[in-house]
Specification:
- The structure holds two protein chains of two kinds.
- Chain A contains no helices and eleven strands.
- By secondary structure, chain A is an all-beta fold.
- In chain A, strands 2, 4, 5, 6, 9, 10 and 11 form a seven-stranded mixed β-sheet that branches.
- By secondary structure, chain B is mainly beta.
- Chain B is built from no helices and eleven strands.
- The N and C termini of chain B lie far apart (41 Å).
- The chains are: A mainly beta, B mainly beta.
- At the A-B interface, strand 4, strand 5 and strand 10 of A face strand 5, strand 9 and strand 10 of B.
Chain lengths: 120, 113
């Protein structure tokens, strides 16, 4: 399987605990995105990386959230001091944007299966 | 800024009937538009995309959508519904030069036998 993978698929944690999710993008994809999807809603953008650089962060990404992509390959999303409102599906996507990218061109995002977080 | 409105959070049709899922968008720049499908406990699968080429876009599984600039719409249709089409459908917009997708709230499609 050469698609986007996420681990774990499900996570149940108690309020106040820290959790970390991992996303492995499609090989050689240099862009990686995180989205959050709450029950009954569409996904909302959190942040994205080009290689190891985090280029955009949503206001949804509070200071309890941190994302990294240290070697420009896999990425981790950590939530500290979890709250019940953090319960959601966390989706990762990746895309390939060639060097000297024309920002007006479309680079399709491929989504992983998501990590469902339940905070009790 | 971009936004998407999907009209109808639930749509129910009979097997073999026409499927019509509505999407209206708002964008300050020429948009890219997408329809994604999501099955329970799974990620998003791209059905089709509009990239300013042909206004009628054909996708997978017999779905198609028409971009109408004058109506700021991108409705999704399928002539004949199949039981396997039951899922959640999301319309999304991406402004040219922007990296993030902005999604609608979704439409749950139910197929009645």
């Amino acid at each position: 399987d050469t698609g986007v993978s996420q681990d774990p698929r499900h996570k149940i944690t108690k309020r106040g605990q820290n959790v970390t999710f991992r996303c492995d993008p499609i090989s050689e994809h240099n862009r990686l995105y995180w989205y959050r999807q709450t029950l009954g809603q569409g996904p909302e953008f959190l942040t994205y990386f080009q290689n190891e650089a985090q280029l955009e962060k949503s206001r949804l990404l509070s200071d309890r959230f941190s994302a990294e992509r240290p070697k420009g390959s896999f990425s981790t999303l950590e939530i500290q001091r979890t709250e019940q409102g953090d319960s959601a599906m966390y989706l990762c996507a990746s895309s390939l944007a060639p060097p000297g990218v024309n920002t007006r061109r479309l680079y399709e995002q491929y989504f992983g299966p998501g990590t469902r977080l339940t905070v009790t | 800024a971009q936004s998407v409105t999907q009209l109808g959070s639930h749509v129910s049709v009979s097997e073999g009937a026409l499927v019509l899922l509505r999407c209206n968008y708002s964008s300050s720049v020429p948009p890219y538009l997408f329809w994604y499908v999501q099955y329970p406990n799974q990620g998003l699968q791209l059905l089709l995309k509009y990239t300013s080429a042909a206004t009628l876009v054909k996708g997978i599984n017999g779905f198609e959508a028409e971009f109408k600039k004058s109506e700021t719409s991108f409705h999704l249709t399928k002539p004949s519904a199949h039981m396997s089409d039951a899922a959640e459908y999301f319309c999304a917009v991406q402004g040219q030069g922007a990296q993030k997708l902005v999604f609608g709230q979704g439409t749950r499609l139910t197929i009645n036998p």
